[in-house]
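In this supplementary section we document a worked example of the pipeline. Step one takes a protein sequence of length 224 as its only input; no multiple sequence alignment statistics are reported here. Step two produces a three-dimensional model, which step three serialises into structure tokens for compact storage. The input and output of this example are shown verbatim.
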Amino acid sequence: FNAALQAARAQKISRLMTAYPHTWGEVLHFFTAKGFRQAYEMVNYWVDPADLPTMANRSQLLIDRLTRADLPRLHELGQGMIQLTLDQLEQHYFANPYFPSEAILVLRDHDRRTPTAIAMGIENRAYADVQKLDPLAPCFRLGAFGTEGLNTKRVNGMYSYIATPERAITAGLALLAEISLEMTEGSVRALAAQCPSNAPHLVAFYTRYFREQGRFPVLMLPLE
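The serialised model returned by step three reads:
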């Protein structure tokens, strides 16, 4: 462990992160004894698409695809969640082998065309069924904002979005409705989601429209 710390500092890594199930008490105690502290919990969700509300007046919404010019705004909306630097976002979202950039939709302001919310929707029948996953396992889900750059599990029907607190509910519903319509392969029997507990406005949305499956703690240690 000390050798790992030394190597991390030598590479100028600013913090370390680890995640384990709540039930692994001895392992969690080991890390907390070494100075790790719980930063947040990762909350897992799912929902039957038939249980989602119908979105009215969709024709009045300005929704289109993510562009490279939107990346600074995406980074701003995801402050405190997104793990990558602004310079790393283009590679992650426009050259990712596991999802196309077209999977990312943007809800724009009608006057300025500024993104007010951004969402990801992933459909791939080769990916895991969310209802067959262990929701307590420390498994980050591909496409969930806040998991960029981490080892992730590829899950079919994945939905994730970021928005300002005042637009969290309306934007979340609008983008969810649009992404649900685009999942046309017929392989999605359940939608999946994952959200860190330190984004309460987003957690409130998922809690309202999805079903919580389980959660696991994420611990961090800042390095001087």
